[in-house]
Amino acid sequence: MTEQDRQELYHIITRGRRSTVAQVTDLMTHQVSTCTIQREIHKLGKGSRIAPKKPYLRPQDFQRCLAFAQTHRHWMINDWAWVVWTDELAFELGKKVDWV
User: Are 91 and 54 within 8 A, CB to CB?
Assistant: First the structure.
């Protein structure tokens, strides 16, 4: 695999982060085996990873969110403009594992 092929591979895998090795192989300009692609991906340090788990919402979290919404339901857009959200998190609502 030439240096130009490695650069092409790097651009392909950084653009399509969820692509399989077979999909990456099909996108390459020159014909390269999937084993070579996989080996080069690992050499680049871009192997597959499992996304970290996000915390699940507990029943008390739902209750707190509902209480907050009911307390502030009369607020207008101007009132919300002054709020700084410091507790924004991503939550996992199911058991699905995302591959990165």
Answer: yes
Which DSSP string do the residues of 57-93 spell out, in sequence order? PPHHHHHHHHHHHHHTTT--HHHHTT-----------
Write phi, then psi, for 9 (nearest 5 degrees). Answer: -60, -45
Q: State how far the Cα of 100 lies from the Cα of 97, in Å rounded to an integer.
A: 10
- What one-character DSSP code corresponds to residue 16? S
What pTM was estimated for this model as a whole?
Answer: 0.48
Residue pair 99/48 in contact by the 8 Å Cβ criterion: yes
Amino acid at the residue 35 = C
Spell out the residues 6+ positions from residue 10 whose beta carbon is closer than 8 angstroms to its own.
44, 46
For residue range 24-47, list pLDDT tens digits in order: 899 899 898 999 989 998 888 887
